[in-house]
Amino acid sequence: MRTTITVNGEARSLDLDPRTTLLDALREHLKLTGPKKGCDHGQCGACTVLVNGVRINACLSLAVMHDGDEVTSIEGLGAADRLHPMQQAFLKHDAFQCGYCTPGQICSAVAVLSEIEADVPSHAGDVAERARLTAEELRERMSGNICRCSAYPQIIDAILDAAGATS
Amino acid sequence: MSSVHDWAAPNPVTTNRSGLIGKPVDRYEGPLKVTGTAPYAYEVQPPSPPAYGVMVGATIAAGRIADVDIAAAEASPGVLAVWTHRNVPSQPPRGAKAHPRSTAGSSPALENDRVSYFGQPVAFVVADTLENAVAASMLVNLTYEADAPDVDFAASLDAAGQPPGEQDVEIGNFEDGFAASGVKLDETWTTPIQNHCQMEPCASIAWWEGDVCVAHTSIQMVKPAQHGLAETLGIDRDAVHLMTRYIGGGFGGKGQTYDDLTLAALAARALKQPVKVAFTRQQMMHGTIHRPATVQRVRLGADKDGRLNAFSLMTWTHCHRSGSFTEHASNFARALYAAPNRLTGHRLVRLDLPHAGPMRAPGEASGTLSLECAMDELAEQLGLDPVDLRIRNEPPVDPENGRPFSQRQLVRCLREGAQLFGWERRTAKPGQVRDGRWLVGMGMAAAIRGNFLLPAKCSFSVDAEGVITVRQGMTDIGTGTYTVLAQIAAETLGVPLGKVVVEIGDSELPPAPGSGGQFGAATAGSAALAAGMNLRKALAELATGDPRSPLYGDDPELVTFQDGVIAIENKSETLAALVARAAPEGLTVEGDSRPAADMREWSTQTYGGHFCEVGVDPVTGEVRVRRMLGVFAAGRILNAKTAKSQLTGGMIWGIASALHEGNAVDPRHGSLLAQDLAQYLVTVQADVGELDAIMLDEVDDKANPMGIKGVGELGNSGAGAAVANAIYNACGVRVRDYPITPDKLLAGLIAKGL
Q1: Given CA atoms B716, B721, B724, B726 in this order, what sign does their dihedral have?
Q2: Which of B26, B645, B686 sits opposite A91 (nearest CB)?
Q3: pTM for the whole thing?
Q4: Of B35, B45, B686, which is closest to A75 when you measure between CB atoms?
C-alpha cells in the first residue's frame, strides 16, 4: 500500500505490505535503525518514537495507519555533531550502557517533558494538581522504557538536567 | 616466568601523569548510542538487500519430530527456503573440530529429529520480507512423538549428583563442629530460573564474499564464535570474518552463539544473498541460556560471641539433559568468612529444560541470596549487629587455602557504608518503624566476587597525524570497553582522548577473550598497556635514531610522552611531526599480556557492602526500595563514570532478584511460563528509589600491571540479600523462596497478625 509519512521532517513515500509495523518500516525500509526492536510487543519501549509529537511504541502500530503523520525518531532529534539537549544529558550522566534501549528512552524522555508541561496527569501525582517535574513523576512516566543494564538513576538525572532542573 | 612482582614497576597507567585514568570521561561510543547510529548486528547494512530468516521452535520438551510438512510454507508468498532437519545443508557433527586448536567445535542447526527442550529451533524459513517469513513460519507443520519430559526440579533433588569432576570441599570436620556449636542455624533457600532479557535479542546477519563468510552477530566472545561458525560451516577459520561492534547487552547470555548465526550463514551461502535472522523476544526465553534454579542449604554454627565454628553452603541445581553447566552458588563462600570447620559443594541434576548457563555474577548472584540472609538471621539469634557479626568473622588470610589476600577491604566497605547510610538509625527489632502505611526497615549484606586475568593481545598504531588506533578482538557489551581502552591508550602515549581511535569486535583483530566474568577490563586493558608500551619503545627508538629529530642520539629510555609531544628534557617534537617525517605510513606494534605464574599465591577478590532501606505495605505485601547504597573495593578504577554505572546496574539486578525476577516451569509442556517482558518481570524505573555506589581507593598490584579489578558482577553480588534483610527488618517476615513477591510476603504478614 502506498503510504506517505513525514519522517524527521522529510516526506517519505513507501509501498508497504499492510502487515509492516511502523517500526519495521523505519528500520527495514527507511534504514532508520535508531528505533530498536526489543520485544515487538509494546512491552519494552525500545522502539519509542514521536508521532505528531506524542510518544508511541512503533512496534504496536502498522505503518499504513500513519499515512500523513509526522514521525520523529531518535535520528530526528539530533546528530552526533549537534546533539539534542536530552541526548547531551544522557551522554553526560552515562544514562545508558549497552545503548540498545537508549533511543527509546530519549524519545520517551523528550515526550515526558512535553506531557508534564501540558499537565497530562500520571499515576505518581495528584490528578487534581498540576503535574510537576520531580524524580518521582519521571520514574513513573519512564517506567514503560525498560533498561536491562539498569541505568535508571542516571536516566532520571539526565532528564532533570535536560529539563533545567537540578538532580 | 612472569611474576606479579614485575607489575610493581611504575607504568603510564599507574603513574597517571595526565590524570586520564580514573577520570569520569563520557563513553567513547556514546554519541553514536544516543543518536541511534551505532549499528547493532541486525542493523548492519549488507552489500545487497538481505533476505529475512525466521526460526520455528519446538512445542515439546522431549521426543522426536515424527513428520514434517513444509509444502504450505514453501508455497507461501516470497518464500526462498524452508528447512528442517530433513533438508538443512549438511554440517559436521556436533563438537567436531577440523582444526584441533579451534576454541569451539561444530554446532549444527536443525541437527536431527530429536527434540531436547521446549523452544529448540526445529525449522527455519527465509523469505524476501520479514512479514512473508513470519507468515510462512506459521505454516510449517511438524508432527511430534513426545516423551514425558522430566522437568520438575524440586522433585529431582534426590537424583542430583556431583557435577562432573567435582567433589565437596570440607575443611576440618563440619558435622562435629556444627554439633558442638552453641548457636546454630539450618535453613534452606530457593532461587528461580532467571532469563537474561538483554534488550537486544540475539541476532545475526551474514553474507559471502567469495569463499569468505562475513557475519555480524551479537556476541560477547569473538574467537569462539568465529571458530565455531567455521567448524559448523566446514570451512577454514580464516574464511569466517566475524564482527560484533555494538552489543545490546550480554550478561553472560551472549557468551555463546546460537542457531541464528549458523542459519544466517548457511542460508546466505545457499541463496547467494545476505540473510539476517533475529530471535523474537519470546524465542529468547527458551532458545538461549538461562540462570538455573537453585536450592541452597545453609548451616551456620557459632559461639555466643558470634564467631563461626562451622559453616556450610550446599547447592542443588539443574542443567540441560546433555549439559554439565553448574551454577556454583557455593564457591564464593569459600573465601568470605573465617570458620575452622567448613563444607561446601554442589549437586547437579539433568532435566529436559532449556540450556542452563552463566548469567551476571554466576554463583555469587544466587549464593549470596542465601548465605548473606543466613548471616542476618544468625546476627539476630546472637543479638549482634549484622555488620558486627561479619567483622567478627573476618579472616586474616583466605580461610580455605591459607593464601594471603592481595587486597581485602571488606571491613572498610561495611564500616563506611554503614556510616554513610545512617545504619545506626536501624532498629534491631523488626517491625518497629512506621512511615504512614509503610513499615520501614534496613538491611545489609556483604558483596564478594572473584577476579580474573586471561591472556590477550592488542595492537597500537600511530599515523602521521599522531592519531593512536587501538585494535583488539574485544567486545563492549555496555561495560565501557571502548572508553577504558581509549583512556589507557591516551595515558600511555601521552595524547588527548580525541586523538585515540578504538576498533574492537572483529575476528581479524588481535584476539582477546571478550566480556564475561568481570575479567574484561583487566584482561583487555593489560594487553592494551603492553601494546602501548611497545609503541612507546618503537617511537622512542624512531626519534633517537632519526638524525632529523631533536631527540637524535639520546637514550631512548629517557623519552617522555605528554600532550602529543615526545621529549627528552627540553628537546622535543610532536608525535605527528615525528611519524609524518620518519614513518609516514605509520607504525603498528602488538603487545600481549598473560597471567603471572605466581598470581595464584594470593587470594584476589573484589568486595563490597550493600545497605538498603525498604518500605513494606502490611496490607498488600508490596515492597518498595526506598534507598540503597553500595560501597565497593575493586582495585584502581579506570573510569569513575562507567564503573559506577556497572555497579549501580548490578545493584538494581539485586533488587530484581529479590523482588521481581523468576521464571516458572510449566510441568505439562516443559516450557517456561513467562515468555515475554510483560510476564517476566524485570526491575523498571518506578521500582528504583534513591540509589548510589561508592568506590573506595584501592590499587591491587597482584591483580595485573594496572592494579585494576572488575566491577561488572560485583554490584550484583549480595545486593538482593540486602533487600531481603531489609524486608525482614521492616516487617519481621522471612521469605526464603525468591523472588519475595507480595503473595509470599502476605502469607507471613497475615500469620504475624499484621
Answers
A1: negative
A2: B26
A3: 0.97
A4: B35
Sign (positive or negative) of CA dihedral B42, B46, B52, B53: negative
Q: What is the ipTM for the molecules in this complex?
A: 0.98
Contact B477 A28 (CB under 8 A): no
- Ordered by start, the domain boundaries in chain A are 2-77, 85-162
Average model confidence (pLDDT) for chain A?
A: 96
* pLDDT value, residue A124: 87
Burial B551-574 (b: 16+ CB within 10 A, else e): beebebeebebeebbbbbeeebbb
What is the grid cell recorded at B380? 539476630
- Domains, in order of start, for chain B: 4-15+454-594 (3.30.365.10), 360-452+600-751 (3.30.365.10)
Query: What amino acid is encoded at B670 in this protein?
Result: G
pLDDT at B2: 86
Residue B685: list chain A partners with CB under 8 A. Answer: 138-140, 142-143, 145, 147, 152, 155-156
What SS3 class is residue B453?
A: coil
- Residue B630 with chain A: CB contacts under 8 Å: none
Q: Name beta bridge partners: B610.
A: B445, B630
* Topology agreement, domain A2-77 and domain A85-162: no
User: Is B380 among the residues known to form the active site?
Assistant: no
What local confidence, expressed as pLDDT, does residue B330 receive?
A: 98
Show residues of chain A in contact with B35, CB under 8 Å: 34, 74-75, 77-80, 83, 87, 103
The domain A85-162 having CATH identifier 1.10.150.120: the answer here is: yes
Specify the length of chain A in residues: 167
What is the Cα–Cα distance from B639 to B646, expressed in whole angstroms?
11
Beta pairing partners, B204: B217, B277
Give the residue from A27, A30, A94, A102 with the most B CB atoms within 10 Å of its CB, the best one to mutate. Answer: A94
Q: Where residue A128 falls among pLDDT bands split at 50, 70, 90?
A: confident
pLDDT at A127: 84
Q: CA-to-CA distance for B215 and B272, rounded, in angstroms?
A: 14
H or E element: which one contains B34? helix B30-34
Grade residue A167 by pLDDT with cuts at 50, 70 and 90. very low
When CB atoms are compared, the residue of B27, B201, B687 closest to A94 is: B27
Q: pLDDT, tens digit, for every residue of B167-194? A: 999 999 999 999 999 999 999 999 999 9
Among B474, B479, B483, B559, smallest CA distance to B512 is for: B474
Q: Amino acid letter at B84?
A: T
Is the Cβ pair B248, A36 closer than 8 Å?
Answer: yes
CB contact under 8 A, B676 and A80: no
Active-site choice (B364, B380, B491, B713): B713
Taking an 8 Å cut-off on Cβ atoms, the answer to whether A43 and B677 are in contact is: yes
Which residues in chain B have Cβ-Cβ distances shorter than 8 Å to A148? 196-199, 249, 251, 682
Strand partners, B537: none
Nearest-CB residue to B249 (from A43, A94, A100): A100
Q: What does the pLDDT look like over B155-170, one tens digit per residue?
A: 999 999 999 999 999 9
Low-confidence stretches of chain B (pLDDT < 70) are: 1
Distance from CA of B571 to the nearest CA of A (A): 37
Question: What class has domain A2-77?
Answer: alpha beta
Alpha carbon distance B502, B483 (integer Å):
8
